[in-house]
Amino acid sequence: ITEAFIASEEFSDLQLLLKDQIPKKETQKLPWYRNVFRSYNIQKNENPNDEWPVPRFSSSSARSPLIQWCYLSSRNVRRWLRSPLPLLLILGNSVMYGIVLALLFSETDNSQYGATEHVSLFFFIAVVVSALALSYTPQIFEERPAFYRETSSKSYHPVVYLISMVSV
Fold first, then answer.
1. Helix, strand, coil percent content, the chain, rounded in steps of 5
2. pTM above 0.70, yes or no
């Protein structure tokens, strides 16, 4: 390894330190050192010469938002199928709240009293929707590390990630 550093022009400080340890004859026998440093520079995304230009991408993500949404939606569907208990609880809550709402507000009419019932129906539905959203909170906390990891690495756009979670 030290021979490779000495043969390189980049590591001149190291050449000064190790110049007496390896004779010049040995370093001249090994022409493959240039290729080693070329591949090293390509891995670091540096431009070693004009043959290897630095790649430029047209967008910040590798796939279009529609493809990202398809991948994330299929993953969310598989997650729900693998652990169906939270899904069944959410569906059970929805059915129960639907029956309660139907029984409470089945006698509404167009009178003054019925108009106040319509307003109370709106607020009651808001409470029901917020209760259903709270039952989804544990799933969000389970998904949070993956969300941060995949959005920070720009694998998925954060808006597409959230839309796929909500749509499934």
1. 70, 0, 30
2. no
